[in-house]
Structures are given as C-alpha cells and as structure tokens.
Write a structure and sequence with these properties.
This protein has 140 residues and is an alpha+beta fold. It has five helices and three strands, in the order αβαββααα. It has a three-stranded antiparallel sheet, with helices on one face. The longest helix has 21 residues. The chain is elongated, with a radius of gyration of 26 Å.
Length: 140
Amino acid sequence: MRAMDDNFVSATKRTDLAVRLAGLGVRDGDLVEKFVLGSGKGGQKINKTASCVYLRHLPSGIEIKCQHGRSQALNRFLARRLLCEEMEARRDGAAGARQQAVERLRRQKRRKSRRQRAKTLDDKHHQSEKKNARRAVSEQ
C-alpha cells in the first residue's frame, strides 16, 4: 500500500487496517488498484478527477469500487476496509445473513395483493367502529 495522505486517515487507523489485511492473508501484490473518474453528485471536482478507487483481490476475485469522498487517499483507505469486511463476511458465512436481510427488505417493500389490501382496509374499518362505540353519548 502506498503511503496515504495523513490529513485524511490517522496513523493508528492505517496500522489497524494493515494488521487486518495481514490477518486475512492479503498482500499488496495480490491487489489490482485502478483510479477511475468519479460520477454522480459533486460537479466538476468529481467528474474531472480520478478519485474513485477500483480494487480487485486476485486470489478471491472480490472487486470493490469506492467513491465515498472527494479524496483519492480517503477512498483508497475505505476501499481496503470494504475489502476486509467483504473477506471477513465470506469467511464467517455472514453473506447468507446479509442476503436474508436484503430479501426481508424486498418482501417488505413488495406491493401487496388486492386481497391483502382489502383485509387491511377491513381491519381499519373494524377498528374505527370500535372507537366510535367508545365515544360519549351526546344529548340531541
């Protein structure tokens, strides 16, 4: 890993990341690192500078693309950290848990069937009738 700018990442965080990478068996020779033009919000600064980091770990085939900030040094650090997280998730089998969470969100966002919507409306109507029955009786 080339020396990163001290303004964006502290020395302790860099050493912790290096220890994490070493613990996972990741060497700098195993990584392919490219800098590509960013895209999205940010205007000219993002669109004209190669601050987006593409990182590929050759033995595992994991690819990371990181463009969280405008700084290339910060994005290099974050890309390596994301690589560590992905490798640890694969090692610990957390990918299945993550996939389950994604599927749960997909089910929650899925459009309800006509029958489900009718049942929900019926339940709401029943609840409103119970509330109306609790009201005080007015003298008219």
